Structure formats: structure tokens, C-alpha cells
Amino acid sequence: MVLPADSDFDTSKLRRYALLQYNQAVKRTQILLDESCDGSEEKLVKGLVTCILFVCYENFIGNYGISYMHLQNGLQIITKECRKQCGLTIPKDIIQVFKRLDVQAITFGDAKVPYPDNLCKEHIDFLTAPPTGFDSIEDSLDVVLHLCRWMFRREAYSNTCPVAHEDLASASKALACWNLGMDNYFSAPNARRNGHWEHSIALLKMYQIIMTIIIVTGAHGQETLHDAYSHKYGEVLALAEGLLLDGRVSLSAASSNRFFFFDIGVIFPLFWVAIKLRQSQPRRRAVELLGSMHHQEGAWKSTSAAKVAQFVIDVEEEGMSKDDCYIPEIARVHLVNTTADLERGEIRVSCVMRSDIDDCSWYNREGRIPDRTGLLRA
Known about the structure:
- The chain starts with 10 loop residues before the first helix and ends in an 8-residue tail after the last strand.
- The protein contains 13 helices and six strands.
- By secondary structure, the chain is mostly helical.
- The radius of gyration is 22 Å and the shape is globular.
- It has helices spanning 11-35, 41-61, 64-83, 92-107, 117-120, 137-158, 165-187, 198-217, 230-244, 251-254, 267-276, 280-292, 302-316, and strands at residues 258-261, 294-297, 300-301, 333-341, 346-356, 361-370.
- Helix 2 packs parallel to helix 4, helix 6 (137-158) runs antiparallel to helix 7 and helix 12 packs antiparallel against helix 13 (302-316).
- A three-stranded mixed beta sheet has the order 1-2-3. It has a three-stranded antiparallel beta sheet with strand order 4-5-6, with helices on one face.
């Protein structure tokens, strides 16, 4: 098909043209993947890379259901090849990209398109025997994200129930081995510590801290348990702020430009700090950082995450005086479910809260947030 000439140009024609090209690309990708069955690694790699582009595009425009479909198709292909005795070799970086996109999909809570339940039940064998040493920062980040991926799946599957003790024990053991591996890596004389790795190291520390807190608080346990780790949440906030204000990109510069990344980054850690740290000033600083940058990381959009986090804060602090500094368990939000409504340009938020501590009964506080600038990524 030929692109419409300038004289014939209008928005509807451009959209039809783009949709036709997109559909052709999907069909061509399927052909490539089918043809890779003859043993062509080149066709398999091309098909998987194109699949990654589809996932990112659908996330960008808010079609989460289609994005999940492309993501799961790619993960299934990778799993199938890895299980073959003589399967095709898939580059490690492509596998890592799919895993990171999967972490985004799990942590992103759109109630309209939830993460598939059958995948939440999956057991990841690496937890039983994690590595005790790493050859590079990339290897270390890959393992801690693999752990995050597994833990978030278990948390999603448990819904509002506490994660099983044996799962928490397995995750704790894996995290302890990871910590040992990192100690060994940094104690090695040839460890690379140049500035190029500072960003990755900061991300490592943020996700390691968050995983530690999730494990020790039991995931869906009592929210007041998080109070004992306020200083650790403060460390996550400082690390994120350092990445954003380290001189390479200031918030004032970032606020005038929109960035899209398929990789994980600071949005989820900042959002987690804002909803789990019950100290007024630092949690509002996390919201401020989210709202000041126009970043999108996969399905996560910073400005939308800021609005949802502020909604959670308002619910928890409702009726509190300026002198109050403690939020009781019964007033705390345990789980945030969201649905993005493109047509209305708003986010529907549902906060899961305890109605009674003793019998563990629950209720929802719901609301709507205007979000004309884009869909919720939270």
C-alpha cells in the first residue's frame, strides 16, 4: 500500500494506513516464527525482536490485552525452545528483555486486563539453587529481576491472602544467595565499578530493598509491619532521586520531554514508596518525583502513577489532623486495583482495605481520577 499523498492526507486515512501496515507486520512475524521451525535461528530472533516491538507499541497506546498476548506468545516460544534438547539458541539479551517486560506486566495493576492466573501459579526452579557468584552486573540484575518476577507472580496469585510461608522461605533463601553473590562480585579485584554501571547498581539496590521488605512483611500481611522499614524506603527514595537529579537529566528538563523505555526503571519503586511509606513528607516527595517526570516504562506511566499514589494517600489520611502522624491498620490501603478508561479519559481506582482486623474481612474504596494525558500505568 502507498502512503496517502499530502493532498489526500487526513487523520482517518493515516490511521487506516498505519493499521494495515501493523497487521501486515503481525502476519509477517507469524510467518517468520513458523519458518523458524526448520532450524533458522535468524528467523526466530527476528520474530522475537518484532514481538518485543509489538509489546512496547501496545503498551504505549494502552492496549494492554493485546500487549499481554504478544508478550505471552514470545515467552512461550522462548520456553519451548529452551526445553528442547537441541533447541535454537536465543540471545541472552532478548530473553532478559522478555523477562523485564513480564515484570512490568505483573506489577502493573489494570483490573480490566489482569495478569493471567495460570502464569501466577508457575514455579520457577531457579529459586531452589540460585547462583552464588556473578560475572557481571547484567547477570546480577537478571537474577534479582527473576526473583522479583517470581515473587510478584505469587503475590498476584494469592490476591489479598498472605503468600504461603514456604514461598516466602524460598524467596528469602534466594535473596540471601543473591546478596552473597553480589558481595563476592564487588570484592573481586577485577570488578567493574566505572560510572557506566552506576545506573544499574542503583536499580539493583532499589529492587533488592523492595524485595527484602515484601518478603519480611509477608506480602499482604499487616500493613503496619512496613513502618519498621521506613528508613529502607527512604533509601529507595534517595536512590531514585539520585538517578533523576545526578546532572545527566534534571526534573526540569525531563518535565518538558516525554521518554519511553521498555526496560524497568524508577517508576514502580517510587510508586511503591508512595503507597507503602506512611511518613507524610517523603511519600509526598515520591509523588512529586513521579509527577514531575514524563517517563513511561513499558506499561507504567509516571504521571498516572503519581495521581493514583496521591489518591491512596488521600484515602489513608482522610480525617486526620495536621498533628496526626500515625495511620492505623484499618485505615491503610492493602491493594490498589486500577482500570484505565480511554473514552472517558480517566482512571478508575479501587483500594482494598480491611473492614475488621480480627476476621480479615475486606471492602473497597473507589474513585475516578481524570487522566486526559494518557492511560494509567500503575
